[in-house]
Amino acid sequence: MPIAHEHEIVSARRVVFYGVTGSGKSTLAREFAQLRRYPLCLVDEQIGYAPASEAVWQNRDEHEMRILADQFTQLPEWVCDSAWGKFKDVIFRAQIC
Fold first, then answer.
1. Closest by alpha carbon to 46, among 95, 35, 36, 33?
2. Does the CA dihedral 89-90-93-97 come out positive or negative?
3. Concatenated DSSP letters of 32-55
4. Each residue of 25-34: pLDDT tens digit?
5. Which residues form the domain of 48?
6. Which of 43, 46, 51, 58 ranks highest by number of CB atoms within 10 Å?
7. pLDDT of residue 90
8. Closest Cα partner for 44 from 23, 12, 14, 21?
9. 1 part of a folded domain
10. Which positions ≥6 away from 48 have C-beta within 8 Å?
11. Element (H, E) at 16
12. What is the CATH number of the domain that holds 23?
């Protein structure tokens, strides 16, 4: 994955913070989204896992994940804190990863 240059970061409207567990993706995504006033998608909570009221630590159905990811990425600008393999192609509509 190519490294983004400053001018690309400044103008990006669709951004994914991608990396290993515990690397600070969610923290950085929150701060970036707040700074830019862009909608934030915390992927684990909003796309990957079913609500705890339905099933604790249960993955959503793959089709449902893809629908949720597709709906969010239709927005003109957004920030995501990750991308799961089951819907990575949808999330990677980002300009910067």
1. 33
2. negative
3. HHHHHT--EE-HIIIIIB--TTT-
4. 999 999 999 9
5. 6-91
6. 43
7. 80
8. 21
9. no
10. 59, 60, 65, 84
11. strand 14-16
12. 3.40.50.300
